[in-house]
Structures are given as structure tokens and as C-alpha cells.
Design a protein that fits this description.
Strand content: 15-25%
Largest sheet: 6 strands, mixed
Mean pLDDT: 89
Structural class: alpha/beta
Helix content: 25-40%
Number of helices: 17
């Protein structure tokens, strides 16, 4: 496994992230002496569901351990009360709770970060900087950045991706009784894949998928709680123009999007590639912000007249507008959205990412090869400015 740049606090914490992002492997590297309770194991899950107080017996029997990892806590949310009590009574001990779904935890009593005794961290797919020389943009656009997919032991990555989606649906959706009609949900997922990288219209998706609008709304909530999709809001601070109100929608990984997205004679490959590229940039920005300790700092911008900027980063230290183009050359029309945004917000820095090879400044806008940009994204380091120079990556 590659060296990750995931940060973690000193005390107890939750570590959330979709299945396959490498949470368990990374924790094993960071805390090799920890005691792990794996709730994916059926016998362990059954025993602790029936008698959650047995976890205290397990901790007492392993008193020499300083760290205890409870893997996939959403499988047995009744354990939260016991864990809360253990944290209160064992302040010198660290409890780490991993989860690939927030659905059951949101509905569980005392799930609000265990009364503040455990903070929340996130685990994302690989960053390009974490993969180092193994990162290749073309591969990333096809396969995504999931550790489970990029480093299979004896399987083809495409097969791993398809199996991942099948098993994820089976285990997280069907077995937990979230959705009874998997065929309808699968049709919805396929339809939703056409909205990846677009302003979300639940009504249009409901019409295309042949289901009720209320059903689509509940499906989107399920996907977000399973951490496989995300929405980003419109940037409205000090707005000078009339802006749209709807969020933009993405799957959490470019490979997951590509696997779900149907392809046919009428589909233009460059359109699918463009949406995959935008999603790849998004997942890097989300990871960079989360690992750097920034939350609620990622937006997009779009006026009612259709002028748009793909991503706005707004933090106490960064105010950057980023446009992504799946083209080898920059046209003047590609800069229109960034120019309009800069006119309203002259304080911001503007960056255009494209598939070419040269970095330059055009009309005050920094244009950067997207592959280079992704390789240089490292948590707790600033995004590029006009004086940016390449530095060695991990």
C-alpha cells in the first residue's frame, strides 16, 4: 500500500469513507499493535449486536493495548453507548471507529460524535501524490483512484470495479433492508450517472428512471449516506448576479462513475471523458480540503444566464476559482467563466486546468496541465499561484 497523507487526531476518532478506500489497511500501518474488532465478521457482529456490553469484556481482556479499532461501526450502532462509556472510563485509551455508511449512525442514539469524545476524519480514494510514479491520468480516468481497484492482487481492475459495485449494492443496500427493489435502484443509478458533473434535477431523473420524485429524493439521500456521492452548493457570498439554486452532483470516484455510465453509439467519448476528468479533479480537491482540516469550503458558480466556473475554493487562506477543460489547447471562450467570476470577485485567484503540456498565464489566468496539477496536490500545502514551480512529489 502506498504512503497515505490522511491526518488523524491525537485522541479517539471516527474514520469514515466509502468501502475500498483503504481505511483498514491504513489503520493497520499506523497502529500495528492495536486490537481490531471487525464487525464485517458475521459471528462477531451477531455476538455484539445481542450483547454490546461484551465489548467492555474484550477491552478488559486486552488491557495492555492502548488503541482499539472498531471496524465498520455502522453494522452494530448499538455499540456506541458502550464505546462512549469506555472512552469516559479509559481516557488514556484511544478508540478508532471506522464506517462506510453514516445511515444507521445518524439514526442511532448518541451517534453525535460520542458526545464530542471522538472527532470525525475522512478517508478518500488515492491522491495522485500518494501514488507517485504509479499515477497515470489516462488510467485514473478509466479506473478511478480506489486502492481496492488500483492494486488488485490477481484480478483485472475493470473486473474489480464491476464486482465492487455489485457487492456494495448487495451488502450495503439489500442486506440492510434499505431498498427492496434492486432492479429499480440499479436503473436509477444508471440514470443518475448522466448527471455526474451537472446541476442536479431530481424531477428529470425521476422521469427518465420511471420512478416517483419522492423515491428519487430518498435514493439520493441513501447514496450520500453511503458516501458514494456528493453535492456541492453554489457560491453565493456577496453575489452580484442572479444565480441558480440547485446543487451540482458527483459520484465520489471517477472509476465508479465510468462503470455506472452506459456507453452507446450516440455517446461521445470526449463528453464522458470530460465528466470523468471534472470528477477526478473534484475528488482531489475534496481530499485535499478534508486532510488539510477545511470543511464546507468547496463550491461551484453558475449564473442564471449560464456563465459557470467548475470549482470555487473558499477558505480563510485560499480563494481560488478553477475551471476544468478536457482539451489540449486553451481557447479564449474557455476563460469566459473565470473572467466573469474575477470581475465580481477581484480578490480571487483563477486557474484553468487542461490536457495540454505547457503552464502559462493567459489574460491573468494561470493555465496548468491537469496531470501536473493533480500530482502536486498535497494536504496542508497551498494550491498553485502564478509563481508556482514544480516540486518533487511522493
Amino acid at each position: 500500500m502506498k504512503q497515505r497523507t490522511i491526518g488523524f487526531p491525537k485522541g479517539s476518532f471516527f474514520l469514515f469513507g466509502p468501502r475500498g478506500t483503504g481505511k483498514t489497511v491504513w489503520l493497520g500501518q499506523q497502529f500495528p499493535e492495536a486490537l481490531t474488532v471487525n464487525l464485517l465478521e458475521a459471528d462477531v457482529r451477531r455476538a455484539l449486536t445481542a450483547h454490546p456490553e461484551k465489548l467492555a469484556d474484550i477491552v478488559a481482556a486486552n488491557a495492555d493495548k492502548s488503541t482499539y479499532i472498531i471496524d465498520e461501526i455502522q453494522r452494530v450502532p448499538v455499540l456506541l453507548d458502550t464505546i462512549h462509556d469506555l472512552i469516559e472510563k479509559n481516557r488514556e485509551k484511544r478508540f478508532i471507529l471506522t464506517g462506510s455508511s453514516a445511515r444507521k449512525l445518524k439514526r442511532a442514539q448518541n451517534a453525535d460524535l460520542l458526545g464530542g469524545r471522538a472527532v470525525k476524519s475522512m478517508c478518500h480514494p488515492f491522491l495522485a501524490s500518494e501514488m507517485g510514479s504509479d499515477f497515470n491520468l489516462s488510467d485514473a480516468l478509466q479506473l478511478g483512484m480506489l486502492p481496492l481497484v488500483r492494486y488488485p492482487i490477481a484480478q483485472e481492475p475493470q473486473d474489480v470495479l464491476r464486482t465492487y459495485l455489485d457487492l456494495y449494492l448487495q451488502e450495503e443496500v439489500v442486506n440492510e433492508g434499505i431498498i427492496r427493489n434492486l432492479d429499480v435502484f440499479s436503473r436509477f443509478l444508471e440514470t443518475a450517472s448522466f448527471s455526474h458533473g451537472s446541476v442536479l434535477s431530481a424531477s428529470e431523473i425521476a422521469r427518465e428512471a420511471g420512478v416517483k420524485r419522492s423515491t428519487v429524493d430518498s435514493y439520493f439521500q441513501i447514496l450520500e449516506e453511503m458516501l458514494v456521492t456528493t453535492k456541492i452548493p453554489v457560491f453565493t457570498k456577496r453575489a452580484k448576479r442572479e444565480l441558480i439554486a440547485h446543487n451540482k452532483f458527483y459520484f465520489f470516484d471517477a472509476g465508479v462513475y465510468r462503470t455506472l455510465r452506459p456507453k452507446g453509439p450516440l455517446d461521445r467519448p470526449e463528453e464522458i471523458d470530460g465528466m470523468a476528468l471534472e470528477g477526478l479533479v473534484l475528488q482531489h480537491l475534496r481530499a485535499w480540503l478534508n486532510y488539510s482540516g477545511e470543511r464546507n469550503a468547496l463550491y461551484f458558480w453558475r449564473t442564471r444566464s449560464g456563465v459557470e466556473v467548475d470549482f470555487i475554493i473558499y477558505t480563510p487562506r485560499e480563494f481560488v476559482a478553477i475551471e476544468v477543460k478536457n482539451a489540449a489547447k486553451v481557447k479564449s471562450s474557455d476563460l469566459a467563466g473565470l473572467k466573469a467570476f474575477r470581475k465580481d470577485y477581484p480578490e480571487c485567484r483563477t486557474v484553468l486546468l487542461y490536457r495540454g503540456r505547457q503552464q502559462s498565464v493567459v489574460d491573468g489566468i494561470l493555465t496548468v496541465p491537469v496531470e501536473r496539477f493533480l500530482k502536486e496536490i498535497v494536504p496542508n500545502r497551498p494550491l498553485p499561484d502564478a509563481n508556482w514551480r514544480s516540486s518533487p512529489t511522493a
